[in-house]
Amino acid sequence: MVPLAASRRDRSAKTNALHAYYGSMHEKSTMKKSILFTVLLCSLIGAVFAASQSQTARKKLDKPTEIQSYPCAKGFAWFYADGRLNRCTISRQIDFGEAKIPSGSIIGLRPDAKPDFVQLSDDTQIAGIICRGGSWQGPAGGSTTEFYPSGKLKQCFLAGNQEVQGVPCMNGGLVGDRQGHAAQFNEGGKLESCKLTKDFRGWRHGELFQPQ
Fold first, then answer.
1. Cβ contact 211:183 at 8 Å
2. pLDDT (0 to 100) of residue 154
3. What letter would DSSP give residue 134?
């Protein structure tokens, strides 16, 4: 007959082994979901740029070149069919709409030469919040910060959890809510939506806050 204490230890060991097994399976499942989301996000970014490139032409700049008052760095730049600048990497800090964009960032312009988007080379403060910049792939593989034609901030992925206009907003992108949600603003600068880091005014932690 197996002693009672030994039997309990055996059951406990089996239980711990099962917990470890299912815990490992859960971690693997979560990792797979994160990898899948990363692949889908990169594919979406690629599709957006592919659509843009279908209407633009790429040109290699042999040296830093001033184009439409923008300091484009040596390397590739893209142009619309009429010759106007579509996007390039900038060689120094510039004013772009209401933002100051750091050197090494990619700027994107609309066909009428008004601001469209940037891919920041580093985390940058814009309109009182810090927008995420850079990535292990460089700015081109990072988050996109969007602007209205007026130059006002439209959306950005927050670099860390932040209080935005009194609202506790969650860090956006893969390392934040893991669903790629950005903080969004109307053209007047008022927050339109963000994921919450805690319960707030009837909304629950993790929900999309959309004030009326």
1. no
2. 98
3. -
